[in-house]
Amino acid sequence: MYALLSEETGRELPWGALTGIRPTKIATQMLADKKDDNTIISYLKNVHLVTEEKARLSIEIARRETEILSRHHYADGYSLYVGIPFCPTRCAYCSFAAYPLQQAGSPSASHPDRTEVLKTKYASMTDKYLVCLEKELAATAKLMRGVRLDTVYIGGGTPTSLSVAQLTRLLKFLRATFDFSKVKEFTVEAGRPDSILDVIGKLLTLREYDVDRICVNPQTMRQRTLDAIGRAHTVEQTREAFHLARDAGFENINMDIILGLPGETPEDVAFTMREIAKLAPDDLTVHSLALKRGSRMWEERTGTAESTQHEIAAAMSRIAIEGAREMGLVPYYLYRQKNMTGNMENIGFAKPGKEGLTNILGMEEVQSILACGAGAITKRVWNVPPDDPQHGLIRRAANVKELEAYLSRVDEMIERKEMLFS
Ligand code: SF4
User: Fold this and answer.
1) What is the reported pLDDT for 295?
2) By three-state DSSP, how is residue 303 classified?
3) Which of the listed residues 37, 69, 101 is the one where a domain comes to its end?
4) Whose CA is nearest to atom 7 of ligand 1?
5) 85 in the same domain as 26
6) Could you tell me if 176 and 237 lie in one domain?
7) Is residue 270 one of the residues assigned to a domain?
8) Is the pTM of this model over 0.85?
9) Is 157 in the pocket of ligand 1 (CB under 6 A)?
């Protein structure tokens, strides 16, 4: 069907007909079966119609993931994810459970003259959220007693949109409730730079509780794009937040960028990469914009034919990949979503030794992830011997996404987890 449509439209997709499976999964399996690169490339090209460029990339990443995982005993441990579904304001392209704490007219890049922060109704729900979250975390710690905790990830939303007092409370609670003695990686997303610049001391609080990896996400270094997508912060704030994080002692800083943002051209991506290179992050994730009606929005913002859009997306991807390599970053994980710009992919790059372990464990589905908070999805991986009928079994328990539903149904979320691990 793909070949027929490809011939009819004159278009080829970078990942060919490969869908519904992680591109690195096939390469990982074939490498484990001692197949050489040429055999894997031929297979991906001939069976899944993947381009040679992407086939090589998937082998490189599969090899890197396998090598990193071989350094860790992950099978009998677990990871913890803590979801904080609040952000300073809501970005225009966001599809996550993210509730804005500030009204759109608050001081921001677009409203620098405003001095008073106007709060939303969600701002008054953060304390109640923490109470429910702590209840779920306590139940989770009880459920996993005796199992080694390997990684902790506080994501969202933007966890650092909480106040210093709330962050301190959460971190203190986590340290008192879980055994952190074997934790290899403790990440907090400070995605929005404005969330760590508003109050001095947030970053120091994170360091005080041994957070060793932090995400400061520019998405783009073009101010006009940030304004267009409703990220109420400036490019300068991104630089400032990054330097502050370094000064606070963070030696592993991740940055995220998005390719295919409204109005951006390959030259904008090249500009963003040059600006990011000056900051020299330890880890860089290159996302391709994924929107529910992505193709229509892409059409609206570029006014070009779809085939040209794919070429633009491919050019952006090449610039980003080359730019990351020039910074000394090596690709180490890759995943795809529906409706991605140009049918591309998301790639994580890192300096050797600075790779986000949580990302690999999650992506490769080799370890259970206990996830707490609104919209969090717990995954149980049965790490049992190959002769066990449950070998390879993976089951999920999803928490409700809506904030109010989570607050009123947290006991049910706990029960879902207990059932999954019973
Ligand atoms: S910072 Fe991320 S989670 Fe928050 S609104 Fe923007 S895209 Fe959504």
Assistant:
1) 35
2) coil
3) 69
4) 94
5) no
6) yes
7) no
8) yes
9) yes
Which residues are within 8 A (CB) of 255 and not within 5 positions of it... i.e. 6 or more apart?
A: 215, 216, 217, 218, 242, 276, 279, 281, 283, 284, 285
Q: 403 alpha carbon to ligand 1 midpoint, in Å?
A: 15
State the Rg of the chain over Cα.
22
In this structure, the residue with its CA closest to atom 8 of ligand 1 is 94
State the Cα angle at 100 between 414 and 410, rounded to 5°: 10
pLDDT in the model for residue 110: 58
Cα 173 to ligand 1 centre (Å): 25
Do 132 and 54 share a structural domain?
no
Residue 175 sits in the same domain as residue 233:
yes
- Residue with CA at minimum distance from ligand 1 atom 1: 192
| Distance between Cα 215 and ligand 1 center (Å) | 13
Ligand 1 atom 3: residue of nearest CA: 157
CATH of residue 237: 3.20.20.70
Q: What is the largest CA-CA distance in the chain?
A: 66
Residue 294: the pLDDT is 38
95 CA closest ligand 1 atom index:
8
96 in contact with ligand 1, CB cutoff 6 A? yes
Question: How far, in Å, from the CA of 156 to the mean position of ligand 1?
Answer: 8
Residue 33 structural domain: 2-69
Look at residue 268 in the predicted model and tell me its pLDDT.
97
Instruction: Tell me, yes or no, whether 65 and 81 share the same domain.
Output: no
CA of 246 relative to ligand 1 center, distance in Å? 23
| % helix, strand, coil for the chain, step of 5 | 45, 15, 35
Model pLDDT, residue 296: 37
Instruction: Look at residues 35, 69, 103 and tell me which one is the last residue of a structural domain.
Output: 69
Low-confidence ranges of the chain (pLDDT < 50): 293-299
Three-state secondary structure call for residue 380: strand
Within 10 angstroms of residue 76's Cβ, the number of other Cβ atoms is 10
User: How far apart are the C-alpha atoms of 306 and 302, rounded to whole Å?
Assistant: 10
**Domains of the chain: total:** 2
Counting atoms of ligand 1 from 1, which one is nearest the CA of 93? 7
